[in-house]
Amino acid sequence: MTTPDELLSPTGRLAARLAGWESRPQQMVMANLIAEAIANRQHAIVEAGTGTGKSLAYLVPAILAATADQVEGDAIPAPAASRVDDEPGADDEGAAGENAAGGSGTRRPRRIVISTHTIALQEQLVTKDIPLVAAVMPREFSAVLVKGRRNYVSLRRLALARERAGSLFPEEGEMAQLGEISGWAKQTADGSLADLPFVPHDAVWDEVASDAGNCMGRACPTYKQCHYYAARRRMAHAQVLIVNHALFFSDLALRRGGASLLPDYDVVIFDEAHMVEGAASDHLGVSLSSVAVDRVLSKLYNERTHRGLAVHYGLEELELSVLRCRRAAEDFFGEVRAKLADRGPSPWRVTAPHLLPDTLGDSLQGLGRQLRAAGEKITNQAERHDFLSLADRLAGLAGSLDMWLGQNEPGCVWWVEFKRADRRGRDAQARTLRPCGHGRADERHAGCGRTEPIGSRRRLRS
Ligand code: SF4
User: Fold this and answer.
1) Is 174 found in the same domain as 297?
2) Does residue 233 lie within any of the structural domains?
3) CB atoms closer than 10 angstroms to residue 203
4) Number of domains observed in the structure of the chain
5) N or C: which end of the chain has fewer CB within 10 A?
6) Per-residue pLDDT tens for 218-254?
7) Which positions ≥6 away from 124 have C-beta within 8 Å?
8) pTM here?
9) Statement to judge: residues 94 and 176 lie in one domain
10) Cα distance between residue 282 and residue 177, in whole Å
11) Sign of the CA dihedral 147, 148, 151, 156?
């Protein structure tokens, strides 16, 4: 049985392969500690200084553990030999419980998740460290860099966006980008943002990205060519998954509801672990922002540009309902702000339920029902799906509002904060969902013109 020392020691495989390999005693201590923790199913926390060689110190025992079955003669279905597939993995909506390895009783591969905060570290692992380990490891394994679903273009949504471009994109630059994405989508092998030669406008990518709430899965006419599902298949056969903290905790949050982004795994290793707390609290809570509401409403009807789904389908009643809902949202968030503003700068703890009456939930729910009814009359399955997914989103927003106002989940803290949105408010949703020092403006918010109230729920930290 290969041990970490056989790879890392002064006479080990790495030393034999690399001239100038410098064996580090602390690295071996760390590697053996991690091997022991994995074998005994224990937690281990390691703090090691610069120059220890931490990534190899966890990769070597982790990969040895993930491939341990191979030396016990219980073969893992053959992955490409020591291959590092830097194409992505996947996320979302698999049922929790093993969704890999083809089901029907096939045993899944042992799997290790390595979670980092920065892309730079992910790139180092994928392009440098893992290939190095693969070159000296006497076993076969595959590793994938797992990206979130929204990194991938949805070919079905792209085709739909092109059909509706006139009512979706008021600006020439956006139309031009849509054309460029269409050309790129015909030849990209990867289908992810990393392969796109330019950074698209949020508004454009939002219309063409793979979206869990708006995916037809196997019923999709472009399912066989789908980049996202291709990535999922690669992930399902990998033993090492490189993810970021945000994706890891999104998966964890989904598992509480019986779904998952990642396939089942045996071990997780957090590098850059000082960022774990922020990512965890960000993803294990619920938040609602005026920007999130505005964004959904604008997809339906944008009164400034007179664009949106309602305009495209000539649904005037729906346009009016969107306008009413938008007014209700403006009034509600304005009242939240007015109620709390005299407490000084946000964030503001809200210690009792029902800070103010729910004057928005009914509008969101009603609009959702109207949208659903309109969608159910559409015979084209793909187009109908678009309506229904937006109706689901409205219902989800109403549910978050109800939960936040009622504070009906024990063990949580509740608060409101203002954060700046960009001038158009289009890309502010991610910012509002991501903490930036609990309300401090930072450089990402420079030049922004307005503030947004946000209600959030977070579990108490011990
Ligand atoms: S399967 Fe889902 S993500 Fe893939 S192209 Fe179809 S709708 Fe888009």
Assistant:
1) no
2) yes
3) 19
4) 3
5) C
6) 999 999 999 999 999 999 989 999 999 999 999 998 8
7) 55
8) 0.73
9) no
10) 31
11) positive
